[in-house]
Amino acid sequence: MGPPVLDRWGAMSRSLAEDVLARAKHSPDEPALLFGGAGDRVVTYAELVATANRIGAQLADRYPDLRRPLALQSAKSPAAIATVLACMHAGRPLLLASTEIGRGLLADLVERSGCQAVLGIADEGLTHGPGAADPHAAPVLPPDTSLLLTTSGSTGTPKLVPLGAHGIDAFVSWAGSAFALGTGTRVLNFAPLNFDLTLLDIWATLRHGGCVIPVDHDRYVDPRRLLGLLASTRPHVVQAVPMFFRLLTEAGDGSAFPEVRELLLTGDHVPRSVRAGLSRLFPAARMHNVYGCTETNDSMIHTFGAAEAADRDVLPLGSPLPGVLAEVLLADGEVLRGAGTGELVVSTPFQTSGYLGETGAKDRFTVRGGRTWYRTGDVVTRSAVGELALVGRTDSQVKVRGVRINLEEIEQVLQAHEGVTEAAVVAVPHPVSGRALHAFVRPSDDAVTGLRLRSYCAAKVNRAAIPAAFHLMTDPLPIGPTGKVSRRLLLEKIE
Amino acid sequence: MTIQRDITAHIVAEYLPGTPASELDPSYDLLETGVISSLDLLRFIEWLGDRYDIPFADLEISPDDFRSVAAIEKAVQRFAGVTAPE
Questions:
Q1: Do strands A286-293 and A297-304 pair parallel, antiparallel, or not at all (unpaired)?
Q2: 3 state SS for B50-63
Q3: Side by side, which strands form the sheet with A125-130?
Q4: Residue of A223, A243, A458 with shortest CB distance to B34
Q5: Residue A483 has pLDDT above 70, yes or no
Q6: Which of B27, B30, B33, B59 best probes binding to A when mutated, by most A CB atoms within 10 angstroms?
Q7: pTM, rounded to two decimals
Q8: Contact B17 A469 (CB under 8 A)
Q9: Which of the residue ranges A104-108, A194-198, A211-215, A262-266 would you say has the lowest mean pLDDT?
Q10: Are the Cβ atoms of B18 and A450 closer than 8 angstroms?
Q11: Which of A1, A64, A238, A270 is deepest in the core (most CB within 10 A)?
Q12: What is the pLDDT of residues A139-152, one digit of tens each?
């Protein structure tokens, strides 16, 4: 790789949004967004900024209070991205809400964060949904808050993660130099707008004058279409979760994308079988295993080539990003020195100052040696040569299709159903989604069916958290030695 | 009626093992409730295309076409007889 491309305004820039706005003056005709598919649609920096200015003016008019957040729930579109930009520019905190959550969950997030309204996009214009009933009941946001993201909580209680403008700026600066983002760089964005991954593939790209290729992944369920999109848009940088790479390598129609020079694998383990196919698809790409979470943003990176992709069973987490500290804590809270296994804790320049209004989750953030550390909940091992590798979650959290899900929270939802006596949820490995959830439910009522429970769950939890299978039981659920329902015994019931 | 019965039988067998076919209402939202996840959808569309000889990969389709048994039946009727462009 050549020297990092420094962006012309980088040294003087005050914020991400101002850099993007400056592009509209200095290189108005450069493409900012490229929507692939039938009749590729390009949005230039001039057009993107004009839309952001128009939306910003409407927001200023209608919501003069800049301290209380707005929410945006939208699929990807030029107006949706322009809305985020407008809010960043105005210094207006914006909650990015998943389009996969139902009305009840959304209302809860809006209430807890004191949002003034929920913005949506229709026909490239804004729609306005109701805000918090009692906006003053919500906690005051940290003063620097730019975006409010949510943890991928599986049930009614995703945590709110305020991210400060300074942390975001520091992160996009790192990403810009690490992956040589600049004018003419095309970056594929696969994650939805509300994912932290967009800080890299959308916002670092725009900050450095590149062109984002947003993929509406609902529209790209077919890997052959994804391959077609890659062929027509020819990105240089691709960041995605393991599922994306699995779909592409399995479709394997012989096509290759030599323009891709940086490939970022993130979100979970990418199995060796998938990695082995990547160098055929992306023969010129450097590959990176990127580790991070919503609370801290990217923390560690391991860069590897084709041989390592095909040969290694588990990729290491790699080195901490500049300014990031990573340590391993033992069960007694002592810091692990040398080889061993424990929980990964990190402290990053990009991290949140803490969950909004979560008194119960304070132990995730601890102050030690003058820095705030985040307990990731991920168990890691450190080898004799000092390499860290991911083992799994410390608690009953699992990932389904890249979404972090707590089994106990889904159990609580099921147990709250009036026709249910008891319920337990287990996760079994699944070749495509990572894990498949099985619910074991003992109903108290003949009217309870698997399909009815499914509809009930769909109204309460993220779609990835809806169990793939419902097993209706007539006998009590099996109990383990601690007197609790035994997930191990339930797992034995699944062939 | 046979298309509907055929599709219902397949969905129940593949995605809802143990569920009686009569329980699955033709209007039941298969996508919202995760009966067919976004990952399953691909596999399902492949099956449907093979079964009814419809080249879905070359057609403008949307997830709404597969939202319920009733919607799938409509999609099959709409696209039946379409052949892949050469």
A1: antiparallel
A2: HHHCCCHHHCCCCH
A3: A125-130, A117-122, A70-73, A94-97, A145-150, A160-164
A4: A458
A5: no
A6: B33
A7: 0.72
A8: yes
A9: A104-108
A10: yes
A11: A238
A12: 999 999 999 999 86
Q: Is B7 on the interface with A (CB under 8 A)?
A: no
User: Nearest to residue A192, comparing CAs of A88, A41, A80?
Assistant: A80
Give the bridge partners for A298, in sequence order. Answer: A292
Residue A54 sits at the vertex; the CA angle it makes with A48 and A57, to the nearest 5 degrees, is 135
pLDDT tens digits, one per residue of A247-256: 888 787 788 9
- Measure Cα distances from A94 to A113, A147, A189, A349, B84 in Å: 10, 5, 20, 21, 45
Q: Report the alpha-carbon distance of residue A353 to residue A366 in Å, rounded.
A: 11
Compare all CA atoms of chain B with the CA of A436 and give the residue at the minimum distance.
B37
Q: In the block, which residue shows the tokens 């579109």?
A: A77
Residues of B in contact with A457 (CB under 8 A): 33
How many pairs of residues across A and B have Cβ atoms under 8 Å apart? 62
Q: Give tens-digit pLDDT for B27-65.
A: 999 999 989 987 788 889 989 999 999 988 888 888 899
Contacts of B62 in chain A (CB under 8 A): 219
Residue whose token pair is 């979650």: A393
Residues in chain B: 86
For A213-340, where are the alpha helices, taking DSSP H only? 223-233, 242-251, 272-281, 306-311
User: Which tens digit of pLDDT belongs to each residue from A345-362?
Assistant: 999 999 999 999 876 676
CB contacts of B37 in chain A (<8 Å) are 401, 433, 463-464, 468
Structural domains for chain A: 10-319 (3.40.50.12780), 399-493 (3.30.300.30)
Q: Is A65 exposed, middle or buried (0-12, 13-18, 19+ CB in 10 A)?
A: exposed
**Token pair 């801290």 is at which residue?**
A296
Say what the ipTM of the complex is.
Answer: 0.81
Tokens of A318: 């790699």
Q: Which residues of A touch B19 (CB under 8 A)?
A: 449-451
> B45 and chain A: CB distance < 8 Å anywhere?
yes
pLDDT above 60: residue A2: no
Query: Which top CATH class is B2-79?
Result: mainly alpha
Q: Which of B33, B57, B60 sits opposite A458 (nearest CB)?
A: B33
Average pLDDT for B58-82: 89
Which of A267-281, A353-367, B64-78 reaches the highest mean pLDDT?
Answer: B64-78
A101 and chain B in contact, CB less than 8 A: no
Confidence of residue A242 (pLDDT cuts 50, 70, 90): confident
Chain B residues with CB under 8 Å of A454 CB are 33-35
